[in-house]
Automatic annotation (TrEMBL):
It comes from the Eukaryota. Residues 1-10 have a biased composition (Basic and acidic residues). Residues 1-22 are annotated as: Disordered. It comes from Oryza brachyantha (malo sina). The keyword Oxidoreductase applies. Belongs to the FMO family. This is Flavin-containing monooxygenase.
Amino acid sequence: MLDPIMEDKMSSSSSGWSSGKKSGGVGGQWLYDEATDGGDPLGLAGVHSSIYASLRLNTPREAGGFSDFPFRPSAGGDARRYPVHGELLRYVRDFCDVFGLMDTVRLNTMAMRVAMGPPRRDGSLQWTVRSKRDGEEVETEEVFDAVVVATGHYSQPRLPRIDGMDRWRRRQLHSHSYRVPNSFHGEVVVIVGCSASGAELALELRRLAKEVHLSAKSTGEIMASAMSRILSRYEDDNLHLRLQVEHLCEDGRVVFDDGSCVVADTIVYCPGYNYSFPFLETDGKVTVDDNRFGPLCEHVFPPALAPSLSFVGIPAKVVLPRFVEAQARWVAQVLSGRRTLPAPEEMLRAVEEYNGGREAAGLPKWRTHDLLLDLELCDEYGERTCGFPRMEQWKKELLWSSVSNMRDDIESFRDGYHDSDLVTDGLRLHGWIPPATQPPQEEAD
Ligand SMILES: Cc1cc2nc3c(=O)[nH]c(=O)nc-3n(C[C@H](O)[C@H](O)[C@H](O)COP(=O)(O)OP(=O)(O)OC[C@H]3O[C@@H](n4cnc5c(N)ncnc54)[C@H](O)[C@@H]3O)c2cc1C
């Protein structure tokens, strides 16, 4: 998705713009792309979207949407609480149309290089942006006062390191490159990783595949995950739990940690994604280290380069697009001079304190930007950074019950749910369901 406010907040020697990369439309991840990285697990072909054909949202639409533009069902679209992906694409397009954003979007344009230019006389930073339009040979170079990077973080596949991966001759792909199940018909498939993508793909593929083996780091991990109920439902059939893959053999064997093995046709890797900003040059002032990107104050401003460089959409496991709306508002307030940032040293100290706190809580470095779907923390974040209103209680309850239902049964949570009175009242008050009909009054004699 594009940062909705970036364009009119960037004063520059050139006019502000947002880029739609290679794609011919807005929507980011939600612009479903049949093309894949051709089974190349490193995703070198540079396809942006990781969305597969049958994907339905796992977040309830009534709690999603920007604060001033609810995610209502489209005419003739998918009105369900957890609609198919195209419904969210339609929402993003409508948002851009309604708020007149398309005039500032340059579609089919890739930012090739974003680099610090020589500072101005007053010491303020400026940024040189080199971009290229699809089909054109020449690159354009422009200078800006500020750059907001909102390029998403679900496009650069992360891969496990498994002995024999380079020698295994059969099909290996990352979930990033998965689109449709047809080619898995009758196959023996190993899925590595059992969080949301691994679990959902296992359920989709087991319908066509001969066998699906879901490999998790430990049995404990899988039993605590959304898959426990599913495994007990299908393990007598063709879905099997396996330990971590220990090594791969040239003859097609996949050997697991407990010594058991299967001869597989395909391995699908679902360990998630890495942060990657190949276009960005900051003289080492912002770097990725074991998937910790920074230093970034509140996951947005690099102390040494703020406010002229900022990042929207870095955190994972947050409510979208609400969370990025708060971040975008904060950036807009700072760039327009309505809010000031603390001094760089203070921001750096805050980053160190945050990282130290997370490490003390036992969270590994690679989970620095994982906000654990902590709705209270997200509320405090929005309030603290930009005065963003707290989320209504009924929406929180809807999200909590959605997550809990998903953990309980990832196969059925989208269609089998029951709302509490608080949620029902909230839905009614905000026009998601019709007003309650009053029981007919008894006629007085
Ligand atoms: C399989 C999957 C399922 C998901 N399911 C859900 C869900 O159910 N609910 C939910 O809320 N979220 C879900 N998400 C998360 C989803 O990614 C976010 O909701 C949303 O897409 C994040 O928006 P974004 O704008 O930050 O990034 P993106 O949507 O990734 O958009 C980034 C944009 O930046 C552009 N770009 C990148 N590099 C450049 C460049 N160099 N130059 C110019 N442009 C560039 C891209 O083309 C794209 O337009 C899912 C993600 C995946 C991968």
